[in-house]
Write a structure and sequence with these properties.
By secondary structure, this protein is mainly alpha-helical. 69% of the residues lie in helices and 6% in strands. The protein contains five helices and four strands, in the order H-H-H-E-E-E-E-H-H.
């Protein structure tokens, strides 16, 4: 075995091994402190790219769920308003039925008609003032609910329609007169209006069910994508702890090996004594 002082090869080897161990130890400590397997692009470039894509999908899907819920909220507001309209129309049926009978005088019919006209005015007010998030609920325009996963998108369209005495074919109906004929004609139209409102509520209910079904499907997508993202990003804690123990021991033995390699050069001085 020859001795030299130009280069201490064993010390260089020990130093390189120690640096590698220390880098692995730092990575393991970072994983344990953050709970993530990937903390920088260098840890797993491909995995990070996939995880970032999944994260964008999840964000878009979560907002799509909110969009669907907002659509449901708007439709439920409309349904609640139409429920009140149905109650008003049921009252109108009672009033018109009373005005239709021959035992009611003309002045009494005028009084009943005044109440009936107030019902129509209230229906118009509900149709004009009912809003969701500052937007009129009852309009001729179609509402499109936008759903996306950041890669593909779709829309669910719903239309509530205009609410007014004109839309219900009640505009101009009266309960006045001497023989109840006008009241009977109004009663026929009121019955038809009740059926129209019932049909509208059925359409709204179907749209609510569709949006809720879409929201449930998207929620499942979010769950599955979150699990996939977690599998990529999350650190395997038992494995990381095992690596920590191994790397801690290697770090200590590496330091001892480096110290031993450096001490070999000192032995050359004994040859000069």
């Amino acid at each position: 075995m020859s001795f030299g002082i130009l280069n201490n090869i064993p010390a260089l080897e020990a130093e390189n091994a120690l640096n590698t161990t220390q880098s692995s130890l730092n990575t393991t400590l970072q994983q344990l402190s953050t709970g993530q397997r990937i903390n920088s692009g260098s840890d797993d470039p491909a995995g990070l790219a996939i995880a970032n894509g999944l994260s964008a999908n999840i964000a878009a899907l979560n907002q799509s769920i909110q969009n669907a819920n907002d659509g449901v909220g708007s439709l439920q507001v409309a349904d609640g308003a139409l429920s009140q309209v149905t109650s008003l129309l049921n009252t109108a049926v009672s009033i018109a039925t009373e005005a239709s009978t021959g035992t009611v005088s003309s002045s009494q019919r005028s009084t009943l008609d005044a109440e009936y006209q107030q019902i129509l005015a209230e229906i118009n007010r509900i149709g004009t003032t009912t809003t969701y998030n500052g937007t009129s609920v009852f309009s001729a325009s179609t509402t499109s609910i936008f759903l996306t996963d950041a890669n593909a998108s779709s829309t669910i369209a719903s239309s509530v329609g205009v609410l007014s005495d004109t839309a219900l074919a009640l505009n101009g109906t009266v309960l006045t007169g001497t023989d109840g004929t006008s009241a009977q004609a109004a009663l026929t139209k009121i019955d038809a209006a009740i059926q129209t409102v019932a049909n509208d509520r059925g359409t709204i209910g179907a749209a609510v069910n569709r949006l809720q079904d879409a929201s449930a499907v998207i929620s499942t997508q979010v769950q599955n994508l979150t699990a996939a993202e977690n599998n990529i990003l999350a650190a395997d804690i038992p494995t990381a702890i095992s690596n920590l123990s191994r790397e801690s021991v290697l770090s200590q033995t590496g330091l001892s090996a480096l110290a031993q390699a450096n001490s070999q050069e000192a032995s050359i001085l004994k040859l000069l004594q």
